């Protein structure tokens, strides 16, 4: 196969052998006619052949020399193509050995074939051949499509196997731009897309899509298959550069970076460029939701799919097979269709229906990723409007049972963690990307109700009516012509499969995140009851207490979901008490919470906030009953337990270690103190922190740390409208009270009973240090 895609080259990062160093130095500095790609062709052929035997170059230098000599301006390229095919067979074999991890044969050579090809100027020569039409009008005849395809495939093989080739090509902006022009030709599209994706992946500076000549026309010329392939390239151009795990990157460093970069990033500019292409989002929605034939031809379709996948681990390899099959079908349509003609088609080219389905799944993974990135960008509302208009959610709902979440689950499925870059099968990648899209779609947006059908929307209205509370405005404003069809909406279908997942399945993490996003924002009693009626709370508690789940990621996602589900909802706390009906269960639950406060602090915040509200509703008999009976509320009502949480929340973070993952611990500690301030008990809590320091024999440590954290809080939140709105919505505490409370705590008057400084003895004060600079 000409086009290959595999893991990183085993040759990269290793030391090149120095044998024949003098000869190689001469090769590197030699030139023919001033052309860099001619290095080595000036050497006598006898010398090259003699050194070839000793260095095991497999005749590549001589072939490169012949390739150069046969590719003059007036060449008809017949001999050029023949030589290139001979070279391609050597290079593709080596690339295949790397893709299949059978590296022994490749390592027998002192220099890998592709390294030798590049060393003698082969890569530069192919680049010059491809770009020659843009550099001169004298060339006759032009290169045919097959020759262009082979040139691209050889270049790609070199990128796989040879250190530095990809990086070198990435520095050539003229070549990168030229490659996009080749995508207009369907016959060379696949090879071009393969090479562009690899080059853009290592390019130091992200390409600017608006620099591509007539990008809009190019994209509009693509058929649906080409557009899906193009999404792989787009994913590199619209995603912010990966600077490490986002959750582990400190907020201090991020804030400093944002201060330096005030203008939109290239990724953000590229997102705008794409959204301005007429019909682009509509076509992506059609790709994401188009149906796949169910005529698999075998009852063991998924097992067959997995067998194929053991060696087809990349979309582009599969694309190549699909193209072969398509070309063969086109050829057969013009020839005899009798049995002898069919028999002439190799068995491996007769692709099963399962292969066509996994091909479609791979396309959808790429499309959903692009849509997900756009949903999280600055143009989120514009994207949301278009996704609703083009019925993305109803379309995905119609695919859910038949494609996205089939009932069959292979026993040998290895489900990886939530790392989006994990080496997953197409099925697993598709499910995770689908769940990430749902999470992005629902999070803090009124369009979340499109995940329901009309009957379910009516159910929400009925819940509000029964509780004598007004309907949520977003529910009232939902366009019912755009919601899900069928007996179940997408959210309900998701809940159904969520309950069937094994305890430690990483799908649980993404499923919980997707459902939690539906609840996030301003708390809705009707939304909570809708999910409570479907047994979600009992399912979560089973997973936390009884299932034996050990995954911290899954447990964290369930704690967060439980917090959103129970917040301010007296019925939820009553259900909790019904399930956790023994002291043993309650202790298991508490142990899970206490084992990692970073994971569980959002649930702690929910309990504290809910308790505070319920204690102000003592005229309600139902509330009083639950307050007196619920073990969880009784536990949090004891001030020593709230103080214990406060001590640990402040102690596990500091300004230098704050990340997006653990900054919630700071906000939870603030909630505890804000509620104490409302009740006039803030001095009591601050004094308790001081006493804790002295009892632990580290006076000033907790309070100095908390003071610095609050200074960072001001620096971080006072300039971010979105983050401040999230704090207000999630806590039902006006952000003005958040700001005021932090200001009171940071007051510089040592006589103020509500200022942290009043509880730090002068010898232990460290407040003059500026910790807000990286």
From TrEMBL:
Organism per entry: Triplophysa rosa
GO MF, one annotated term: phosphatase binding
Gene Ontology CC entries for this record: Cul4A-RING E3 ubiquitin ligase complex
Keywords in alphabetical order: Receptor
Signal peptide: none
Source organism, top-level taxon: Eukaryota
Pfam families found in the cross-reference section: DUF3689
A biological process term (GO) from this entry: ubiquitin-dependent protein catabolic process
Designated name of the protein: Short transient receptor potential channel 4-associated protein
């Amino acid at each position: 196969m000409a086009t290959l895609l595999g893991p990183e080259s085993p040759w990269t990062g290793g030391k090149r052998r120095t044998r024949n160093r003098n000869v190689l130095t001469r090769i590197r500095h030699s030139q023919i006619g001033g052309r860099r790609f001619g290095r080595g062709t000036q050497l006598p052929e006898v010398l090259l052949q003699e050194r070839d035997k000793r260095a095991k170059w497999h005749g590549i230098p001589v072939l490169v020399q012949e390739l150069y000599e046969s590719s003059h301006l007036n060449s008809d390229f017949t001999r050029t193509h023949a030589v290139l095919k001979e070279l391609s067979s050597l290079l593709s074999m080596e690339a295949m050995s790397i893709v299949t991890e059978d590296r022994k044969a490749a390592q027998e050579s002192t220099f890998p074939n592709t390294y030798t090809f590049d060393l003698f100027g082969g890569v530069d020569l192919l680049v010059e051949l491809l770009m020659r039409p843009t550099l001169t009008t004298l060339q006759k005849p032009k290169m045919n499509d097959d020759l262009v395809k082979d040139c691209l495939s050889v270049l790609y093989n070199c990128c796989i196997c040879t250190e530095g080739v990809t990086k070198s090509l990435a520095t050539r902006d003229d070549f990168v731009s030229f490659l996009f022009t080749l995508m207009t030709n369907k016959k060379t599209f696949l090879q071009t897309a393969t090479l562009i994706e690899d080059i853009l992946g290592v390019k130091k500076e992200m390409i600017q899509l608006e620099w591509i000549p007539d990008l809009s026309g190019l994209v509009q010329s693509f058929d649906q298959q080409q557009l899906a392939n193009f999404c792989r390239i787009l994913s590199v151009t619209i995603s912010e550069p990966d600077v490490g795990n986002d959750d582990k990157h400190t907020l201090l460093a991020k804030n400093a970076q944002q201060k330096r970069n005030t203008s939109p990033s290239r990724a953000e500019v590229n997102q705008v460029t794409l959204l301005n292409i007429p019909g682009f989002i509509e076509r992506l929605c059609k790709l994401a939701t188009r149906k796949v034939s169910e005529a698999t031809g075998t009852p063991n379709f998924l097992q067959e799919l997995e067998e194929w996948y053991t060696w087809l681990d990349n979309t582009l390899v599969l694309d190549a097979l699909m193209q072969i099959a398509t070309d063969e079908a086109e050829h057969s349509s013009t020839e005899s269709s009798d049995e002898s003609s069919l028999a002439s088609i190799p068995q491996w080219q007769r692709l099963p229906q399962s292969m066509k389905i996994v091909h479609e799944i791979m396309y959808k993974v790429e499309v959903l990723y692009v849509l997900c990135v756009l949903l999280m960008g600055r143009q989120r509302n514009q994207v949301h409007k278009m996704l609703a208009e083009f019925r993305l959610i109803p379309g995905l709902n119609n695919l859910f049972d038949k494609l996205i979440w089939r009932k069959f689950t292979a026993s040998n499925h290895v489900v990886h963690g939530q790392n989006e870059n994990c080496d997953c099968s197409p099925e697993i990648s598709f499910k995770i990307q689908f769940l990430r899209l749902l999470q992005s779609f629902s999070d803090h947006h009124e369009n979340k109700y499109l995940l329901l059908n009309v009957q379910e929307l009516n159910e929400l209205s009925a819940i509000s009516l029964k509780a004598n509370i007004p309907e949520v405005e977003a529910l009232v404003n939902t366009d019912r012509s755009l919601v899900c069809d069928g007996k179940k909406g997408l959210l309900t279908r998701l809940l159904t499969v969520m309950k069937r997942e094994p305890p430690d399945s990483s799908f649980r993490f993404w499923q919980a995140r997707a459902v939690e996003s539906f609840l996030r924002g301003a708390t809705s009693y009707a939304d909570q009851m809708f999910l409570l009626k479907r047994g979600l709370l009992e399912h979560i508690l089973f997973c936390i207490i009884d299932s034996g789940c050990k995954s911290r990621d899954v447990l964290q996602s369930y704690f967060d979901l439980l917090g959103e589900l129970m917040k301010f909802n007296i019925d939820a706390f009553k259900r909790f008490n019904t399930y956790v009906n023994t002291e043993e269960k309650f202790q298991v639950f508490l142990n899970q919470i206490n084992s990692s406060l970073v994971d569980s602090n959002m649930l702690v915040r929910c309990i504290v906030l809910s308790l505070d509200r319920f204690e102000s509703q003592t005229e309600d008999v139902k509330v009083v009953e639950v307050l007196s009976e619920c073990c969880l509320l009784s536990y949090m009502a004891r001030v020593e337990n709230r103080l214990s949480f406060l001590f640990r929340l402040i102690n596990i973070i500091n300004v230098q270690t704050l990340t997006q993952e653990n900054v919630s611990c700071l906000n939870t500690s603030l909630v505890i103190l804000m509620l104490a301030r409302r009740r006039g008990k803030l001095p009591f809590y601050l004094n308790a922190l001081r006493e804790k320091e002295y009892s632990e024999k580290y006076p000033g440590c907790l309070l100095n740390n908390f003071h610095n954290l609050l200074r960072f809080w001001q620096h971080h939140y006072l300039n971010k409208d979105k983050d401040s709105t999230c704090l207000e919505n999630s806590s039902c505490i006006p952000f003005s009270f958040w700001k005021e409370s932090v200001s009171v705590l940071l007051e510089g008057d040592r006589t103020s009973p509500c200022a942290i400084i009043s509880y730090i003895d002068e010898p232990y004060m460290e407040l003059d240090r500026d910790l807000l600079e990286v």
